[in-house]
Fold each of these.
Amino acid sequence: LFFRLLGDRSPFTQQNWQVDSLDRDEENSRIQHLAEIANFLGITPSVDTEAIQGRGSYDERVEFLRLIVDLVEASCYADNPEWSVDEQLAKDVQLVDSIAEKQAQIFSEECKLFPADVQIQS
């Protein structure tokens, strides 16, 4: 992912060890920018250039990649033209209403699921 974003100047391509200072500054600028994006998206808790370059513990790197995968999966659903916030809200409201209706039936006098002397807090 970051190789594609950074291109040939990615810190992951160690082919050319003799990079002049201008290229190094541009590379650092890109890494800093990616770290700021990762922080903004909630992938990292702070602007962490070390995490962007794949440094850190194994667990930190796994968590970093898991969060990226979650964002990619979320973006797949966001691109679904058939999905609508209004339709999803209507489905959610219908589900909550259905649950409330079932709860009312269970706790009703007619159901007699619980003896009259049992106090039920809802």
Amino acid sequence: MSTPPSPWAEIKRLFDALADLSPAQREPIITQAALVDAPLAELRSLLAHHDQAQSFLSTPAAGPLEEDTPRTGLRMGAWEIVRAVGVGGMGEVFEAKRADGSFEGRAAVKLLKRGMDSAAVLRRFAQERQALARLSHPHIARLLDAGASADGLPYFVLEYVDGQPLDKAVLGIPVQARLNLFLQLADAVAYAHRNLLVHRDLKPGNVLVDRDGQVKLLDFGIAKALDPLEGQDGHTTVGGHRPFTPNYASPEQVRGEPVTTATDIYSLGVLLYQMLTGTRPTGRNATTPAEAARSVLEDAPTKPSRLSAQEALDPQWLQTRKVLEGDLDNILLKTLEKSPERRYTSVEALAEDVRRYLGGFPVSARPASWRYRLSRRISRNRLASVALALGLLALLGGSAGIAWQAQAARQAQQLAEMRLKEVRRVTHELVFGFGDSVEYLPGGMKIKADLFRETLAALERLVPTLGGDEAAMADIAQVHVRLAEAYSPGYPTSLNEPALARSHAQKAVAQVEQVWHSQKTDVNFSGYASRAYSVLASAETLTGNKDKAAELTRRGLELAEQALTAAPSGSDLLLLRGAVTAGYQALAITLDDNGVGLGRYEEAMTMYQAARASSMVEMAMTAEMEAVDAKSRPSQTRYAAELGQTLAVINGSMSSSKLRRGDYD
């Protein structure tokens, strides 16, 4: 099965082609692009970021511009511009001094650029001023004044911060000192959240550390007021899409989804990761915004302590790396979860875990469960996940056996039972779930068979240590059935090894007979039990042993009928009814193929009739369930058509059989 091409290549190509064009020039090209829905929205989002998201302090305190601006010496209300200190996408930043004689002081003046005073930009400028006016916190740059220049451009005056961007300020200082700086930043963001503001553009350039080691959070230029009503996940939300910085944006920002407080939590995780390692968790090799955004969506962050010295840009990495192992790894990975609901519920909760770490107390962050990690690995790369699955099975199977051999006491037995239970869970998730998902990939059938064999080995190591757990033995039978089908020449995508198919089918039948009495009420197992006899019958047919094949088919049909009778009330009987139908059909075909020689022609026709009747029941049950579910006439009509098709196949088989026998009635 071919994998559909990723839209990212086209998004990247279009972004590179459109970035330097005006919006009017872009639109005809975008309209003709082969992108729809989410990819199209992502392209527009990246272009919007390119145009607008350079916040007013995106290059703070970087020193004077190459040429002094003509605005030096001009008055902005009570303030006189001293020098230019930075320029952003839409605004310029100047150092200013108080000039009205009231008192001496320094400040930063943010002035909108000429030509950028569109309605949308003016709204954002006013929005930032309004946001800052609501905030009074020691780690947020204070708003001092606001107004308009003589030529009508709006400005506002901020507390001047003589400091370094966060990523530069932490170079060479101990991990504990870095964490304390992070806590200052977290307190500022939590304060903004309590005032119903989400920052949405947390990055090193927007966080300065002054000469006294105090953090100052800047640039609420794309901050947004939150809905005070909380969503079901506990994060307050804001609708609509706004610009962002891809390297520090959350997955939901990249997708254009509603922004929540969890968005800032993710960005704080990126900042903390960079503070502790010197590099970002994703997109380290990205050269365009599109590549960075794709990495945010698709790449899992590397566990910080596992970064190599080449990947980490921390000059003290060999010492830092050891400190990160364990709790800090877990804190960072929890903060950087792709799904907002799996992150910390609040900035306060994140900060509390950091404080607990610093105090030597247990933290709430734990490694993700193996089920979650496995599901994420499978969703990203099905083939690469096989090694993880096999290793997990080997670990679970081996450790339980060692524990049981080491101690014959009750405690060891309980441990072995617990491990067996875990292996059974893994078996059902891998063999009856993941195994089928790789079958049609290139080389997938071999991978599937390898996975089944390892699963089987883990179960077979454990079962004898517990005196033969019959539920686990039933699982073993089912895995043998799956392996027999994988090797059987009669099955799609088969590996075509008849001898192995026959061997596994024989083992499956032996296990079924051993546990049938206690497990026949398990509907899933009963279906596999019938399949065990069917696949062994096919193997015997290939060897020319048709009598044995008929005998095995009868036994499989007998078990399916027993299970149908013994099934608990409320069970899903479709699986068993299907097994009965298949049993009738298989026996009919087996008898029909050599019916003249065996004198079983009439019996074969009886089996065809039984298959037809059973199929009618099966299809009627399915139609009834679907109709109740959908409460629609079309549902019943569709299944009536399917029933007709099924009966036509069976009737066709009957007619063909009669013609071969010369029966023209």
